[in-house]
Structure formats: C-alpha cells, structure tokens
Amino acid sequence: MKILHALGFALLAAVLVVMPLTSGNEYELRLFMLFLIYGVIAVGLNVLVGLTGLVSLGQAGLFALGAYAGAILAIRLGLDLVLASLGAAVVAGLFGAALAYPSVRVRGVYLAVVTIAFGLIVENVAIEWQSLTGAPRDSRASRLPTFSGIPCRATPSMRCSPSRSSSSRWRRTI
Amino acid sequence: MYPQELVIPAVAVLAMVGLHLLQRRTLVGRAMQAVAHNRQAASLMGIDVDRIVMFSFGLAALLGSGAGVLVAPVIQASASMGVLLGLKGFAVAIIGGITSGPGVVLVGLAFGIMEKFVEGYISTAAREIVGFSAMILVLLAFPQGLFGRREVFKV
Question: Which residues of B touch A101 (CB under 8 A)?
C-alpha cells in the first residue's frame, strides 16, 4: 500500500512536469489546470466526507469564498499571488471553522441542508455585495495581479511573464 | 389576486387535516408511524414494510406534485423551479422542528412573511441570505428546531 502511494505521487509529479512541456496550446494547459483545481476541491471533500463522515454539500460555497478572497486580495490590495492564495486559504478556512459550530450540532440530512444553505448564502452575498465582489461573472480587473513581482498579462489564462518573447513554458502554467 | 391563489390555503389546510387524520385514524397511517419508528419491529408485527415505504413515497409524490400544480400558475414554471422551493421547505421544517406539524406550519407562515419584507425593503438576493442565515442561527440555539422534541436514542 505504501509503495502504491509513493508510486502514485511519483506519477503525479511526472505528469506535472511533462504536461506543461508537451501541451500544444493554452486550451490544453487550461484544461489541465482546471483538472488540478477540481482535484483540490475533491481532496477537501474527501477530508470531510471520507475521513469524518460529515456529508457536506456546500463545498462550492467555500470554493467561491476562497476564489473571491484570492481575487480581491490580489487585485484590490495588490498582494502577490502567492500571498493572496495563502490569504484566501486562511479566509476560507476561518469561514469553514465558523460553519462547523452549527454543523456539528446536527446530523444526517440536517447537516446536508445546513451546508447547502451555506453555499446559497455565499452565492447570494457575492451577488449582493457588488462594491466588494464586482458584478457576478465580471472578470475585468482594475489592476493585474503579480506573481513574484511580475505582472500577469490579461490573456484568457492570465499567464505571468516578463514579456511575450521571453515567456517560458513553465511560467505559462501559472 | 387570481382565483387559484385562493385555492392554495384551502388545499393546504385540507392536506394538513387529511394527513393528520390518516396518521391517527387509519391502519395504513399507524403502520407508517410504526415503520418510521422501527422497521424491524414493524415487520415482525406483520406489517409489509416495503409496501408501506412504497405508499409513503407515493403519498409524498402526490403531495409534492399537488403543490407543484398549485404553485405553477403563481410563479413561473421551469425545470429547476422546485430546487429552491424544496430547499426552503426543508429549511422551514428544520426551523420549526421536523417532528411538530403545527410548528412547521407556523414557522412556514412566518418565514414567508419575513421573506416578503426582506424582498421589499432590501433585495431579492438578500431574501435568500436572511432566510438561510436565520435557519443556521436557529439551529445554533435550538438543534431540534423551535417546536421539535428532543430525539431520544436508545443504544
């Protein structure tokens, strides 16, 4: 079993290395990134449902919280992408911890409904609080986020590179 | 105000009274309670558990579709119209305490009135925020709902 785990991680690492080097276009890269992002959500869900048996249907709400927190930190406050990601994780984590208080007092289908309700609350707050979040589905930003000091260019995949000519394939994955 | 809006409270009261009578007075209603309480014991007492479960599902579908028929002319009909309504129904049932029929009805009325006030004075998106936040807050203070009895678990 341990060997299988190590093998799995080695395989993942190999895929992570090979994928950016061999992808033909940005669409493929974008697809791969989305796959990894949803993988992270699945891991988070696995912690809750798989390890503790708490059925959470509001994971999308926490996902949205993290996404909005990251974007707001990076664009409004001009934080570096790495810092913004960490901040987003902290914010979403704090909300998750707060959600735990009502959730652990109920069980079964009540818990599922509480988590769905949390997702709905996040969705509607994002719609309603436009001065903070911007209009729903509005991807325009007043300022571009930076990755280790390098501003990201506003391509569909938001790559961070010093300039077009020197953009390496590595940078593109970010 | 359309005539069918007047039908809604009438049907609601009829359904509530009918369900109450079914539960208390008829054999099948009592069998349903028995199955809900303890499946195994009910089947040992000669109740056909599968049949009762089938009947319960059918009855739930009947009531659900009846509610759909009543509500479709009032709000717009669409494929996913039931999701939010169903969820709100659940939220109300949880606030009221799922074991207490009158409590759920009372909370449902209060919930609807509150929603309309929030909708009118703030906005439609705030309606959802306030409603579901209220549910979570109630659960924090009363895990069994406002009118529900504490569940007793025998181990």
Answer: 140
Give one word for A134, left, alpha or beta, with left for phi > 0 and alpha for psi -120 to 50: left
DSSP code of A77? S
- d(C-alpha B118, C-alpha B113), whole Å: 9
Residue B109 CB neighbours (<10 A): 11
Residue B59 exposed, middle or buried by CB count within 10 Å (0-12, 13-18, 19+)? middle
Give this prediction's pTM: 0.72
Establish, for the pair of chains A and B, how many residue pairs have beta carbons separated by less than 8 Å.
49
Other CB atoms within 10 Å distance of the CB of residue A27:
11
- Six token digits for residue A77: 């406050």
Task: Record the tokens describing residue B69, joined without a space.
Answer: 């028929």
What is the interface pTM, i.e. ipTM, of the complex?
0.71
Of the ranges A5-19, A134-148, A152-166, B129-143, which is most confident? A5-19
Which residues partner with A151 through β-bridges? A146
